[in-house]
Protein 1
Amino acid sequence: MKLCDLTQFYSPLSGGVKRYVHEKISYIQNATEDEHVLIVPGAKTECLASERSRIYFIHSPLVARSSRYRALINLRAVEQILERERPDLIESGDPYQMAWKAIASGDALRIPVVGFYHSHFPEAYIRSAAKFLGDTAGEAVMDFARRYVRNLYTQFAATLVPSERLGAVLRSWGVDNVRPVNLGVNTTTFSPAPDDAATTRATLQIPESRRLLLYVGRLAKEKKRSGLIWRRGTQT
């Protein structure tokens, strides 16, 4: 089987989607006989090939200099790669123009297409902007976002979500093809010992009466992690 992921949520520096697709590539290469194709934006157009894996970078303009995210606007190049590779399954990893292209190409090539709802963008981005418009206009913008999500994701053969809670939100919006997927934990990278919490408390002078939380992820505003930051036992 040949699987294809395409997304513009891809930065050479970091990111959860990058981690997701590269963990998938690693698993396919080490534990299966399948093939994998990844289509993402890049600083230049090139293809990096290894055993049963090909990563296609398509030259795309920067949209964020600090994080190095890019907008993939050359959809014809995406179409040509899909026509040449002819994967058995396409997975779309973002909700923008790449997603619509994946659906259109899948229909034309008779390839099933699924979407992974990696980013709850109406809540992370649109609601933050809509609050400056007032209650009426803000709710109208959020309603448009909900309808956009419903119109896009109901066209996929399935919509994958990383949690049942998020799946329940999408179902309430009318997305009826939700499939929760447990992403799991890479225990080679993350394997805390039983006494690690005690050592961390002692190092940071956090008393036992305080709750200790560990945040693993990008320090991005949309993650809303400000309430989880602790400094010497004091919440900030």
Protein 2
Amino acid sequence: MSEPVTTAPPAPRPAGNAAGREALLVWGMAFAAIAITRAIGPISGYAKAVAAVAFLYLPGMIVWRRNEDYRDYGATLGGWKRGAALGVGFSAIVLPLFVLGFFGFVHLLQNVPEGLSGLLAPYPKGTAFHFRLPDRFPAHLVDQFLVVALPEELFYRGFMQQRLRDAWPKGRTFLGARLGPAFWVTAALFAVGHLAEPHPWRLGVFFPALVFGWMRERTGTIVPGVLFHALSNLTVLVLEASFFGPR
């Protein structure tokens, strides 16, 4: 008579300082993979793909090993209608204001010394606005939603923000969301992570990261963050094409 097959219980999920160390280790591994890929000329063009794989695989490896539920990390469609409404509604309010700010920013760059303007943005001077879409715009739609926004939101607002909250659970409520050290550190790591492409203007993503993080805390899901993230990136691509030509 055969012995019953037994399976080992899932590994416990570390809390406290161990949770923080786990989050920072995973972030460091992802950052190193992206930075090394960018630094090696023949494969630098694959950095985006490496980022997407790292952002999906590294947290997934931990979730699978501990037999956890992805819903604990905001990867759930539960209440998706509410989340989608928040993401789309926020986009409808914020992105028109961002467009106005972008116009003003481009105008400001015309009057900034060349050395300083290069630190603020990668844009040339002497441009005029003519509405146009980026080349291969349908491909950009798929890319921004599935290759950029979804992996980044799952990694940062899903995994990182949750694990750092396990380490530092305290926070104050703001507009229905609990914001504490985990919220701020996640936004900072998101910004620093963009320095895998070492340009100071890349740190500007800290500010939209605050919105992405607030949405995650407010709804418990990454759905609104994915929508707002992708729509924000697409807006920037359209503005860049309209001011500086398709790329």
